Amino acid sequence: MKMLRARLFDLAIVLVGVSLLAFSFIRMIPGDAVAIMLGANAEVTPERIAAVRHRLGLDQPVYEQYFHWVGNVVQGDFGASIWTGKPVLHEIATHAGPTAELTVIALFLAVVLAVPTGILMARVRGRAGEPVIQATSVVGLTIPPFWLGILLILLFSTLAPNLSILGYVPFSQDPLANIGHLLLPAFALSLPILANLARLLRSTLLEALQQDYVRTARAKGVSARGAVYRHALRNALIPFVTSVGIMAGYLFGGAIVIEQVFTIPGLGQLILSAISQRDYPLLQGAILLVTLVFVLVNFVVDLLYAVIDPRVSHR
């Protein structure tokens, strides 16, 4: 219970800090939201600009705007978009589906491929193929997902010019087309996470293989394969599982970037449009909710780790 209260307090502090930074930095972006909204119109007068600023509450001191916004957020009201007039939560909900799908598929690919890859990396230790596998994992760890996405688009547009790989098809409309459009961006997004998880599993698996209980099992005649799968892997997966939860938050943020490469109408498109239009309420709400997802995932991971390893809750 003490650990739970401490984690909740940390979560609240992070959210308050992010809300303050997001609110402040957004207003440092050059350009006036009202001027951009009204555009180069001959009928735009200083009086009309002042009237619009007053209607949007932008004529108030910045600190008053912040406290007014935070007070509404606490009550579940994130405001309305300056451009569309629709509630911010409605705009975010409309675009969150593709981002959530992309994140889930990328996480699934990373986990499913990282486990056999990490086991293989551990089993080839000291053999001829180890340098090649290690070098490949480093490349996968360092390659930018957006750059890999561009390479994949160029490759498939050359090999299969008639194949549609850009855009997004709702799952309810065509499930196969939905998965087909998301596989390439999901793979590009998951590769660094895959490499990271595989290297982590390799390290923890090699450490577990050095433990006394594994040596005892080997002395009793258990094969090397059996020692890995029946004894060492179970303990090696504990830090792996907790890292998966942390990586999920990073994937959610990374999806916003990869969406621009594959023209997926998710939160990335929404946030970039809000930046270019200086749509303060929409941008603030989107950043705050993305951060909330990230910290909640980490919060759940902390609780999960305490369940897996009860010693953590007593620290």
Tell me what you see in this structure:
- There is one protein chain.
- This protein is mainly α and 315 residues long.
- The protein has one domain: Orthogonal Bundle (MetI-like fold), CATH 1.10.3720.
- Helices cover 76% and strands 0% of the residues.
- The chain contains twelve helices and no strands.
- The chain has helices at 2-26, 33-38, 46-56, 62-74, 88-123, 130-142, 145-159, 175-209, 212-219, 224-261, 267-277, 280-308.
- The protein is globular.
- The mean pLDDT is 79.
Quickly list its features.
315 residues; mainly alpha; ABC transporter permease; MetI-like fold
Second rung of CATH, namely the architecture: Orthogonal Bundle
In whole angstroms, how far apart are the ends?
Answer: 12 Å
**Rounded average pLDDT:** 79
**What is the C-alpha radius of gyration, as a whole number of Å?**
24 Å
What is the CATH superfamily label? MetI-like
SS strand fraction:
under 5%
How many β-strand runs?
0
Please summarize the sheet with the most strands: none
Please provide the ordered H/E string of secondary-structure elements. HHHHHHHHHHHH
At the first level of CATH, what is the class?
Answer: Mainly Alpha
Q: What general form does the structure show?
A: globular
Please give a quick description of this structure.
With 315 residues, the chain is mainly alpha-helical. It has twelve helices and no strands.
